[in-house]
Design goal:
Structural class: alpha/beta
Number of strands: 12
Helix content: 25-40%
CATH architecture of the largest domain: 3-Layer(aba) Sandwich
CATH superfamily of the largest domain: SPOUT methyltransferase, trefoil knot domain
Strand order of the largest sheet: 1-4-5-6-3-2
Largest sheet: 6 strands, mixed
Order of helices and strands: EEEHEEEEHEHEHEHEHEH
CATH topology of the largest domain: Alpha/beta knot
CATH class of the largest domain: Alpha Beta
Radius of gyration: 20 Å
Low-confidence stretches: none
Distance between the termini: 26 Å
Number of domains: 2
Shape: elongated
Oligomer: single chain
């Protein structure tokens, strides 16, 4: 069944109007016709059975059928703080974070980030990442959008996190493993937030680690193998959701 995003603002009674992009995909790429069935999701957790009714200009009008099972909030909201990587790695991270069930991504400008982006470039990047997240929602069957924030600096991030539970993945950590920290924090994170912090390709600066630990962020290692920045956060997120009972069969 083909899935399409529908903004809640474009649902009027039992009629839904797809935006230009989704309409173009339905008409030009998929070549749907009046009467064809589809699934619409609103990015806020709801999805609907719908039927292509007609076109209005270049837009598709659909009649809503039954409301399908709403997507439940995860057992823990995973906030992936990703040290800004170079190239297109963030696109991969966004796509896979959607599939795993991450709640939000916070791009972080680190001292060792190879990529140093200006504000106007960041805004374009965020729009690109949001488009990738939307397509990943369509593909994966997820009905709730991944939130992607503007670029943060470390001081701003620390203020935002406050005293909420957080783990920084640090390859030089020799005393504490990720599983140990995760299991100690998880009972207090149920239906709440957990921040997972991943450095860029160059790793964390020792001063950054000191600032994080000083605020109460737990430093942990994922093991003896050094993981790429685009791998570490995804593995840590999946393990956290599994530990919370959000992945796998009940």
């Amino acid at each position: 069944m083909h899935r399409f995003f529908i903004s809640p603002h474009n649902i009027r009674g039992q009629v839904a109007v797809l935006d230009d992009s989704e309409s173009r995909h339905a008409l030009t790429v998929l070549r749907l016709k009046p009467g064809d069935e589809m699934i619409l999701f609103d990015g806020e957790g709801k999805s609907y059975q719908a039927f292509f009714q007609q076109t209005q200009g270049k837009r598709v009008l659909a009649v809503l059928g039954k409301t399908l099972e709403n997507e439940l909030s995860p057992a823990v909201n995973i906030h992936l703080v990703q040290g800004l990587p170079k190239g297109e790695k963030m696109e991969f991270i966004v796509q896979k974070a959607v599939e795993i069930g991450v709640h939000s991504i916070y791009p972080l400008q680190c001292r060792r980030s190879v990529a140093q982006l200006k504000q106007d470039t960041v805004e374009k990047k965020v729009r690109r990442w949001e488009a990738i997240a939307r397509e990943a929602c369509k593909q994966s069957g997820r009905n709730r959008f991944l939130k992607i924030t503007p670029l943060f600096g470390l001081a701003e991030l620390l203020t935002l996190m406050g005293n909420r539970p957080a783990i920084v993945l640090y390859e030089k950590e020799q005393n504490t493993g990720y599983k140990q920290v995760l299991r100690s924090l998880m009972p207090g994170c149920f239906r709440k937030d957990l921040f997972l912090l991943v450095g860029p390709e160059g790793g964390w600066d020792e001063g950054e680690i000191e600032e994080l630990v000083h605020q109460g962020v737990h430093s942990a290692s994922l093991g003896s193998r050094v993981l790429r920045t685009e791998t570490a956060g995804l593995i840590a997120s999946a393990l956290a959701l599994y530990e919370a009972g959000d992945l796998g069969m009940p």
